[in-house]
Amino acid sequence: MKDGPKPGQADHIDLLLDDDLRAFRRDVRAFLGAAVPPETRERVDNGYAATKPEIVAFLKILATRGWVAPGWSREHGGPGWTQLQRFVFNLELARSGAPTVPPFGTSMVGPVLYTFGSAEQKARYLPGILSGEDFWCQGFSEPGAGSDLASLRTRAEDRGDHYLLNGQKIWTSKAQYADRIFLLARTDEGERKQHGISFFVLDMETPGIEVKPIISIDMNHSLNEVFFTDVKIPRDGLVGERGKGWDYAKFLLGNERTGITNVGRCRNQIERLKRLARARGLGSDGAFLTELARVEADLTAMEITEIRLLSAGPGAPSALTGPSILKLQSAQIQQTLQAMIVTALGPMAAARGGEFLSAFEDLDGLPPGFFDGAVGEYLFGRAASIYGGTNQIQRDILAKMALDGRA
Question: Annotated active-site positions, please?
Answer without folding.
Answer: 256
